[in-house]
Write a structure and sequence with these properties.
Layout: E1 7-10, E2 30-33, E3 59-63, E4 69-70, E5 85-89, E6 96-97, E7 110-112, E8 121-122, E9 135-136, E10 142-143, E11 150-151, E12 164-166, E13 173-174, E14 187-189
Parallel strand pairs: 1-2, 2-3, 3-5, 4-6, 5-7, 6-8, 7-9, 8-11, 10-12, 11-13, 12-14
Length: 196
């Protein structure tokens, strides 16, 4: 990968990114995705070891307003091959954050979700092991947006920096182990429609 590449923009029309396409692009600071990409396998390593967690540098990932889903496994990280995403910004059309999309992204600290957006589902393992994740929209609280219906299995498992979770009135399902091993979680506010 290129060690000088700082920004990647993926325009509408793309469906597939090649294996290891941006692996080891350690200077990446911004990724803008305007395409509805297909889900990828955990072995794809598209953004393996991208960005950096040294100094004050960070890696912001932005999904444009035309994107309907954050693809499964797109930023999947394991061991020392962590993708150093620090901030996720979803567009207003994102309905689903895919399975294991940010699995193991231990530097991810903030998720930006627009008010009145379309987010309905956070799939299995979506943020599993995001140990730096504290909140949404710059807050020190995981205050999930109105409109969200389901938080799937292991979605926030191991997110040990979350101290407070606030669920919207539209949430009807939190699956098993969604917040397992969130060791600092000490406050939960539940909406009135939660079934399980």
């Amino acid at each position: 990968g290129s060690t000088s590449l700082e920004e990647v923009i993926i325009p509408k029309g793309y469906k597939v990114l090649s294996k290891n396409a941006f692996a080891d692009c350690t200077s990446l600071k911004k990724i803008v995705i305007n395409a509805d990409l297909d889900d990828v396998s955990t072995a794809a390593g598209i953004f393996k070891n991208a960005g950096s967690n040294s100094g004050d540098s960070g890696l912001t990932v932005i999904f444009g307003d035309s994107v309907g889903k954050v693809p499964a496994n797109l930023f999947y990280s394991s061991g020392d091959d962590c993708c150093h995403v620090t901030e996720l910004v979803t567009g207003s059309a994102v309905k689903v954050i895919g399975e294991a999309a940010f699995y193991g992204c231990r530097d991810l600290a903030d998720i930006r979700i627009p008010e009145g957006g379309s987010l309905k589902t956070i799939e299995n393992n979506a943020f599993y092991g995001c140990t730096s994740l504290k909140g949404i929209n710059g807050a020190q609280s995981l205050s999930l947006p109105e409109g969200l219906n389901a938080i799937s299995y292991n979605a926030f498992r191991g997110c040990s920096s979350i101290t407070e979770a606030v669920f919207p009135s539209t949430l009807t399902c939190i699956e098993n182990s969604a917040f397992y091993d969130c060791t600092d979680l000490n406050s939960v506010k539940i909406g009135s429609n939660l079934n399980k």
